[in-house]
């Protein structure tokens, strides 16, 4: 029988209740497990959707959110070969998958079609039946195959948001070949969006930010955008008609997709990564008139996440963040909901 250790964490006790300090049980590291001392944990908008029950999973409350985890290996199981005590490591949105389906074999564990499915870092029953608890905590135990190496050139606090925000933008930008000669628009300059600007710029694309206002224009240009437009100005949609090869929509709220599809060139693609709770209507004519594509993308697999971390290491890319104490999490949630985040809140795990 597996023994457990209690560790402190911050959890949502039920949907819509504020987060509070609790203790959770972490299993003793098994043969292929890594015990990570968490140093930093990013706050993703998905944490808020989940903690507030917006995605309607019913939920395994109390739930400890957090899937942008950066820390240091504190112990390893006897069979671990990929990581050593003292290594700087990260954990993203999932901690296991079936390992046998076509997706898993292709390194696309996030699209696992096996019976186990992708085991989310929090709120999901794992292969041992225990419900996972995430990164707003001091320690976590994860199978070595789902633990990433963080390059030395990226500080751990700036690295944490790469584990979700970074890979969620890297994957579609790589898949739809953002690069020299490509015009890419990033919709929403929040946690995901600001990583998209940095990464698309580093890939060599011409980058435009489409934000609700010009409030963050200076930041956007500093982060690597070539152009910046306010979507509250109807003239933006005329000026930029037929402009982009690729648009990545990171907005966490409802958006008029037809208006954005109008900004694509012939054969262009709009990739949805934002995940608001309600359906988004699309007019067939917005797609068929110029052979446009509407696509979706979810985080990235383990090999691609490592590739993204190495890419960020080579290009000196980390997140822009505001470091907070654990007792500021609820306040930070409100600020994220008000689009008042520059550009990720990162929890200092030492304050948990
Ligand atoms: P975030 O930091 O809150 O950023 C979202 C941005 O969307 C805001 O900064 C804001 O940008 C814009 N926005 C917010 N409300 C808006 C509104 N009513 N109308 C127009 N624009 C609005 O959130 P995030 O952490 O980046 O996450 C964004 C979304 O992606 C969430 O729904 C999250 O669950 C989802 N997500 C998906 C994946 C995936 O794998 N597909 C992974 C992680 C997160 P401006 O102020 O610039 O307008
Ligand atoms: Zn996330
Ligand atoms: Zn699988």
Automatic annotation (TrEMBL):
It is an enzyme of class 1 (oxidoreductase). Keywords: Metal-binding, Oxidoreductase, Zinc. InterPro entries: ADH-like_C, ADH-like_N, ADH_Zn_CS, CAD-like, ER, GroES-like_sf, NAD(P)-bd_dom_sf. It catalyses: a primary alcohol + NADP(+) = an aldehyde + NADPH + H(+). The keyword Cell cycle does not apply. Residues 17-347 form the Enoyl reductase (ER) domain. Gene3D superfamilies: Medium-chain alcohol dehydrogenases, catalytic domain (3.90.180.10), NAD(P)-binding Rossmann-like Domain (3.40.50.720). It comes from the Bacteria. Its EC number is 1.1.1.2. SUPFAM superfamilies: GroES-like, NAD(P)-binding Rossmann-fold domains. Its cofactor is Zn(2+). It holds the Pfam family ADH_zinc_N. Belongs to the zinc-containing alcohol dehydrogenase family. This is alcohol dehydrogenase (NADP(+)). It comes from Streptomyces hiroshimensis. The lineage of its organism: Bacteria, Bacillati, Actinomycetota, Actinomycetes, Kitasatosporales.
């Amino acid at each position: 029988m597996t023994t457990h250790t209690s560790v402190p964490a911050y959890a949502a006790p039920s949907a819509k209740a504020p987060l509070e300090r609790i203790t959770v049980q972490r299993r003793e590291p098994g043969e292929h497990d890594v015990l990570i001392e968490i140093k930093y944990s990013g706050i993703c908008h998905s944490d808020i959707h989940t903690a507030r029950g917006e995605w309607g999973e019913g939920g395994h409350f109390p739930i400890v959110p957090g899937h942008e985890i950066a820390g240091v290996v504190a112990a390893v199981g006897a069979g671990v070969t990929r990581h050593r005590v003292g290594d700087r490591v990260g954990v993203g949105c999932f901690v296991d998958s079936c390992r046998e389906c076509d997706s898993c074999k292709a390194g696309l564990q996030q699209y696992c079609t096996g019976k186990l499915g992708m085991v989310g870092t929090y709120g999901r029953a794992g292969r041992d039946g225990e419900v996972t608890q995430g990164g707003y905590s001091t320690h976590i135990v994860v199978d070595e195959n789902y633990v990433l190496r963080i390059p030395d050139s990226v500080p751990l606090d700036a690295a944490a948001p790469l584990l979700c925000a970074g890979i969620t933008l890297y994957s579609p930008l790589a898949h739809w070949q953002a690069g020299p000669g490509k015009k890419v628009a990033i919709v929403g300059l929040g946690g995901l969006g600001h990583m998209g600007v940095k990464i698309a710029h580093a890939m060599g694309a011409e980058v435009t930010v489409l934000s609700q206002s010009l409030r963050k224009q200076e930041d956007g240009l500093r982060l690597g955008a070539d152009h910046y437009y306010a979507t509250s100005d109807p003239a933006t949609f005329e000026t930029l008609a037929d402009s982009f090869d690729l648009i990545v929509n990171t907005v966490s709220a409802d958006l008029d997709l037809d208006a954005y599809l109008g900004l694509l060139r012939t054969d262009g693609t709009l990739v949805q990564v934002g995940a608001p709770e309600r359906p988004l209507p699309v007019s067939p004519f917005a797609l068929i008139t110029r052979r446009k594509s509407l696509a979706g993308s979810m985080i990235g697999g383990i090999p691609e996440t490592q590739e993204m971390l190495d890419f960020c290491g080579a290009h000196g890319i980390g997140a822009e963040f505001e470091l907070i104490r654990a007792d500021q999490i609820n306040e930070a949630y409100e600020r994220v909901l008000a689009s008042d985040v520059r550009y990720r809140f990162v929890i200092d795990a030492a304050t948990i």
